[in-house]
Specification:
The complex is a heterodimer of chains A (198) and B (93).
Chain A: E1 7-8, H1 15-26, H2 30-41, H3 44-60, E2 66-67, H4 71-87, H5 99-106, H6 122-127, H7 130-138, H8 142-153, H9 158-165, H10 169-193
Antiparallel strand pairs in A: 1-2
Helix pairs in contact in A: 2-3, 2-4, 3-4, 4-9, 7-10, 8-10, 9-10
Chain B: H1 4-12, H2 22-33, H3 39-48, H4 53-71, H5 80-89
Helix pairs in contact in B: 2-4
The chains are: A mainly alpha (198), B mainly alpha (93).
Bound molecules: zinc ion.
């Protein structure tokens, strides 16, 4: 959309206009937002608070939302930032024993490439039930869980993901690649422990 | 792991059983499945995908994981009381 055509929600816009945008552009995404919040916090009460804070912030900052642009990505970005700033520290998520090690091993985006082929076959994943896949996803460090959620579950493009996460597209690609390798390992371990034929 | 017989079968069909540049291939396969591949990556994929067993396996694995995440995870509905609380706080009710 050309800049001249885009409508910034002006500070002096009427309450009616604000409420209209809120109802028509923001509220329809509330189920996705709630699921995102729940997968980040893994706690219903925290998810509740996080979604509420996000929507109140969205309304407060509605003047910086450009109508006609992607409201869902804009809301996801606010939620992600609220989570990092306000919730991460007091999250009820139990500390994983191997969390620190994983962060150090995988978090350096520029880190040396390790040839990683996880010996896991598609049919093994095919046999798993949703809960098993969910457990594997939930066991990932939150940064890796986040890229998988917004890509595979919410279907955002790399460009939208870059905006939500405030990182360059190249970093989106490498973080996603690392996240998927880690998820494959988790699925593989899970499958082995459950006695699936891998 | 591929059994010896499947390695033999692959060799006979002219399919590579090891990939010399698998790390790069994995990134390309990811871009293809995410719908984010460049023209160059798409061409490379079309020309090479059916001749390399590790890449064929990787393609099906990542595709299957993506589909499982998308279709098999429980999807919650936002509680009605949360929506009402938000609306109340904003004087929308
Ligand atoms: Zn290959």
């Amino acid at each position: 959309m050309p800049v001249a055509m885009s409508k910034i929600v002006k500070e002096e816009s009427t309450d009616d206009q604000r409420y209209h945008i809120f109802n028509k552009e923001f509220l329809p995404h509330i189920d996705s937002m709630y699921n995102f919040a729940f997968r980040l916090t893994m706690d219903e009460d925290d998810a509740h608070d996080l979604v509420q804070d996000t929507y109140l912030k969205a309304f407060r900052f509605i003047s910086s939302f450009e109508q006609g642009t992607n409201a869902k990505a804009w809301l996801f970005r606010i939620l992600k930032n609220s989570f990092i700033n306000d919730y991460r520290k007091r999250s009820k998520e139990p500390a994983k024993v191997d969390y620190q090690e994983i962060e150090t091993t995988y978090n350096s985006e520029e880190g040396g490439e390790v040839q990683q082929t996880v010996d896991l076959r598609a049919h093994t994943v095919q046999d798993m039930i949703g809960d098993e896949v969910a457990n594997a996803l939930n066991s990932l460090p939150v940064d890796f869980r986040t890229v998988i959620i917004i890509c595979d579950i919410e279907g955002f493009t790399y460009e939208e993901m870059a905006k939500i996460l405030d990182i360059p597209i190249g970093t989106v690609r490498s973080r996603l690649h690392r996240a998927r390798n880690l998820l494959k390992e988790k699925l593989k371990n899970y499958a082995t422990s459950m006695g699936y034929d891998t | 792991m591929m059994s010896n017989s499947s390695v033999d079968a692959a060799n006979k069909a002219g399919i590579k059983t090891s990939c010399e540049n698998h790390e790069k291939c994995m990134r390309m396969i990811q871009a293809i499945l995410d719908g984010e591949a460049t023209e160059e990556e798409k061409n490379h994929f079309r020309d090479n995908m059916d001749v390399c067993m590790p890449c064929i396996n990787e393609y099906h694995l990542v595709k299957c994981i993506k589909e499982s995440l998308c279709n098999r995870l429980e999807r919650k509905t936002c509680p009605e009381n949360l929506i009402n609380t938000i609306k109340l706080k904003l004087d929308l009710l």
